[in-house]
Amino acid sequence: MIKSKFHLVVTAAIALACSPALKADSFTLLMYESKTDLAARTDPQKAPAYWAAYGGYAKQLAEAGILRGGTALPGNAETKTVTLTQGKAQETDKPFATSDLELGGYFIIEVPDQAAAVKWAKKAPGLATGAIEVKRHFPNPTMPSK
Q1: Of 14, 18, 20, 26, nearest in space to 109 by CA
Q2: Which of 33, 67, 81, 116 could form a cystine bridge with 111, CB 3.0-4.6 A?
Q3: Distance from first CA to last CA of the chain, Å, rounded?
């Protein structure tokens, strides 16, 4: 991967205290990647290393017993944004927020607290050239659960 200035963006609500008696919290790790990294996914020369890095990361999360889901996303290539303007839904072919980085995927993990989620975010392969946003899940009391 190309080395460049990078940063870690961490956004989360106050995390629960770390205790074995407490149920773990769920967090989503949003993987923001550069256009170069997203293009590596389909480059015959670079794709094997790209997918191996994320496969290894997913394996670490699974082996730690904290992986609950996730997927790769196509970056901004197939993004539609729907907004409401004067009471009418409007559709555009661009992301809601624009940046040099694009949302390339996410992992859902269940860990004791925010500090643990950030620790795992710091191990993500995309951090070298992108950013990882850590969001604590906020349960919707009106949404039925399984």
Answers
A1: 26
A2: 116
A3: 40
Distant-in-sequence, close-in-space partners of 89: CB < 8 Å, separation ≥ 6: 82, 83
Tokens at 14, concatenated = 């106050």
Strand segments, DSSP code E, in the chain are 9-10, 25-34, 67-72, 81-85, 88-92, 101-111, 131-136
Task: Assign residue 46 a region (left: φ > 0; alpha: ψ between -120 and 50; beta: otherwise).
Answer: alpha
Is 109 part of a structural domain of the chain? yes
| Summary mean pLDDT of the chain | 82
- Residue 24 is given by DSSP the state P
- For the chain, the domain total comes to 1
* Measured CA angle at 29 (ends 64, 77), to 5 deg: 130
Classify residue 17: in a domain, yes or no: no
Residue at 13 is within a domain: no
Kindly report, residue by residue over 71-112, the tens digit of the pLDDT. Answer: 999 888 888 888 888 989 988 887 878 788 999 999 999 999
Cα–Cα dist 127/142, whole Å: 35
Mean pLDDT of 11-32: 57
